[in-house]
Every structure is written in structure tokens, then in C-alpha cells.
Amino acid sequence: MKPLLILGSVVAIIVSVITGNFINTVLLGSGSGTIDTLSLFTRVGTALHPINSSDTLGSSSTPITGGYFENLETGQAQIGTLNLTGIAVSPFIVGGTASTTLYGNGATSTFGGNISTPTGNLITAGELSASSPLLYNSSTKQFSISLASSTSDGYLSSTDFGIFNGKQDSLVSGTSIKTVGGISILGSGDLGVVGIGYGGTGITSTPTNGQILIGNGTNYSLSTLTAGNNIDITNGTGTITIASTASGSGGSSFWTATGTPARVSNTQFTITSGDFTNLFSRGTVLKWTETSTVNQGVVVSSSFSTPITTVNIIGDAMDSIDASSLKYSLNKARTFTLAVAGTIGATSTDIAGRFNAPFPLKIFGADLYAGTAGNGTTTIDVNKNGTTMFTTKPYINGTNTKGEGFTADAGTTLTTGDYVSIDLDSPALTTKITDLYVNVLYSPLNDIYLP
Question: Distance of CA 18 to CAs 4, 12, 44, 69, Å?
């Protein structure tokens, strides 16, 4: 073996001469100074040992600052104390392919292959530190990291990771989240009005009490319910109350008229709340009170002109109407007919058969009809037990074949057995009518007491 030793800037060639059991090493160098020949090692087989087992290589005051061993394949290299703190170390290499065991302070470490010392300045454990969220314990020489919280950084636990990983993916309007009425619900602001095509109303106005959505064939509109006959509707905050205005219990024969009826004359009243001509049609029996006195009549005609319905009646005179007292019957007025055949040409009394009242009756008035029209005025009288019931006598005028709506005197009634007869007061002067029919309108008298 021919080792080459490099000492600082001095290059020395080591020449070893084996003499017996000794190896004499001669350092041939360049530069100034004299290097003596030393007998350093003794050979035991193929191993080299220091002659003096207590010899050391360098000291703490004169450390080895450079050099290397080349092709050193010894099994062990024992080093006492190796203090590298604060020293700039040039390469210090233990070479070879076999494992090398280093002994230091009683501990043993075995390394395979080449072992190299680092270059540059070394850092001690005490000089280490850490920045959040890392932590460093200078006593145990351990680095650590704490669990993250709502106020400090740290590592994420497996439980928290599972929660975090299970969160909703990012939302994309129209893809992972639906639109409303074709409008994205992401972002700030109001969606606006949703049309009926998307399940909305298409209405922006605020409904008043009682208003509900009613389809109009195209969209929705806000509207309130309209009360029918004998129905009252009360609109409240979030409520609609529908109630019957009919009096009595177990059913009623008379129902309170809708709206507010207003008297026009003794034979006419109006209702300003809609078209009620079908309800108050000809023959509808009415009753009302005037200062608590009950009166009765029957409708002979009605007409409508927005928004007023005008109703004409016969029977008792309508001098006034107590509030909410006007009612109409479910049943129409009844009639009985007195007829005279042939030409009605001569003045006479009791010209037709008689009608006898089967029970008490209320007489409203009379209508006249001719089989063939005449020319002129034909006037008759309708009597109760031979006495007129009509101050204004019924008649057919001109070439007409009828005369309708003649009212009987107020308060006209029949008791059971009373009879009704007719007189011809005056025939038509020019051309006489033929075949006369007199319809008398009435109702049972007890209707006045029905609810």
C-alpha cells in the first residue's frame, strides 16, 4: 500500500519500507521543513496496528484540518472524540466497500459503503426553530404540528377531512343547481317575477283582503268573489267568510234580496249591484216591511242597465222599504183564469164563471188576453163577492191582444169561500175582441208568515 498524504499546502509522498515486523514510513515532500522518518505501525498478518495503542491522530488543540485515506478497507476505524462544531471541514472520507463501524462515546454505528462528512458550517440542535404551524421542542429535539382549529392553523384530522371531502361540489347554474323561471338563483339580488310557464303567477301587485288568483284564459288576475243570492261575503286579512243571509231554520221560503234595494215608486224599486233580471223575473213573489208592517207583491217585469236592475211590481203599494227587509219567494205566484167565449160586445155583469177561494188568498192583480184583437179599448172589472178589487180597471187597448200588470187594491185578500167574478164595463167601440181570458195572480195568504 502506498498512501498519499496531503497536509495543507505541502504535498508529501509516503514511502513505506517493510523491515521485519515494522513498516518504516518516509515522507518525501516539497516546500520548506524537515519531516522525520517514523516507525508508526506494526503488522499483524494483513492488519496494521499502531505501535503504541494509546497513540492518537491529532488532538483538540492541533486537529487534523485536511487529508484523506484512500483504499482503506479495514473492518473497523476507531475514533475517540470527533468534535466538528464550528470547524470548516475539508472532505474526510473513509472509503471502501465493506461496512465501517464508527465508535464514539461508547456508541456504535455501522455504515455501508463510503461515508463522507458534510462540507460547510454545521448547525446544532439548539440552533433549530420552527414557524407556525410547525412546533420545535429544543429539549426533546422533536418537531410537531398541532390540530387545526377555527382560530389557528394546523393539520387536518381524518374526521375533519371526511367532512370536508363530503361537502357540496361547486355549484354551476343550470348544471348542478336548477334555475327558477329560466333565471339563475346564484348571486345576489332578487329573482324577479316568475311567469306562469314556470309555476309562478306573473303578478307583481300586492293583493288586497279577499283577493285570490283567478285564471283568465291567458294569465292570472287578482279578484274577489262575487256574492250570489242570499249569500254574504266578508273579506278579511287572510280570510274569506261566506255566509247565507236567508232567515229561518230547516230551510226558508223567502230569501233576502242581494244588495241594497231602493224604492223608486209604489210599483218600482232598483238594485245597484248587478244584473238580477233572472232572479226578479215575472211572477216572483216578494214581501217587505214598512215600519214593521208586512206587505206583499209580485214582479211583472224587470230590466237591467249597468249597473242598475229595475223591478216593476203589482200588489201592495211600496211606500218604503225597511233595511234588509225585501225578500223573494222560492215559489212563483199562482193564477186562476176566468174566460168568456165569443164576441165581447155588450156591457154586462158577472159575464164568466166564478172562482171560489179554497183557502185564504192574497190577490196581487190581473192580466187580460184576447183570442182575437179588436180595435179600441175593452175594459173589465174584477170583483170580490160582487165588489171591485181594482180602483184602476184592467183593459186591452187598441189592436193589442193583451193587457198585463194591473194591480189590485192594496191589502186585497180572500177568505175561504169568497168568490171572484168579472164584469164587462165597456167593449171596444170600433171592432170587438173575441174570446176574453182574465188571469188573476195570487198566493196563499200564509206566505206572509213564512220566513
Answer: 17, 19, 12, 20
